[in-house]
TrEMBL record:
Signal peptide boundaries: none
Pfam family, one: Thioredoxin_2
Superkingdom as given in the UniProt entry: Bacteria
Positions of the Thioredoxin-like fold domain: 42-142
Official protein name in the record: Thioredoxin-like protein
Gene3D superfamilies (UniProt xref): Glutaredoxin
Length: 160
């Protein structure tokens, strides 16, 4: 009986791992070039959701594990949003929406992110489309907050 359960667990793990999009295999992708993300968002007519996080933030990890990674594995979100993350303490280079070179931490500062986790939803020009979601105060409603922000972004993009 134990062997059967173990085999089933291994098979399910393999199936779930092979089903996950390659870009999500190591977690939520970090932004390196917003101009590239913007082109993809414009082509798909979807917003870009950005998680501003810090590596040692337990609430950021919860947002990733309990909400964003499962959403990333759900095919329904492929047509609704592009999701990325920024380490607000990182000096890693990135290109902003206008193609200017900056760092992840400077980009976070430019967008007045002071607490993590913070979620912001942008259009392809870098305009914010919904109120930011700051912190993880009410986990029971957090998925709804995310969906509302995504839906607000979608509605604004598709109305134009």
């Amino acid at each position: 009986m134990k062997q059967t359960i173990t085999r089933i667990a291994v098979i399910l793990t393999w199936i779930m791992g092979s089903w996950m999009p390659a870009a999500w295999a190591d977690g939520l992708p970090y932004v390196q070039d917003f101009t590239t993300e913007a082109k993809a968002a414009q082509a798909k007519q979807v917003p870009i959701l950005v998680l501003f996080m810090s590596p040692h933030c337990v609430y950021c990890e919860r947002v990733l594990q309990e909400f964003l990674l499962p959403m990333g594995r759900n095919a329904d979100y492929d047509t609704k949003v592009i999701m990325r993350q920024i380490d607000m303490g990182s000096e890693s280079k990135l290109l902003d929406f206008k193609g200017r070179s900056t760092t992840q931490s400077k980009f976070a500062s430019m967008h007045k992110v002071r607490m993590v986790p913070t979620i912001k939803v942008f259009d392809a020009q870098g305009n914010e489309l919904a109120d930011p979601i700051v912190g993880l105060l009410t986990p029971d409603y957090y998925g709804g907050y995310l969906d509302n922000a995504i839906d607000q972004g979608l509605a604004k993009i598709r109305a134009n």
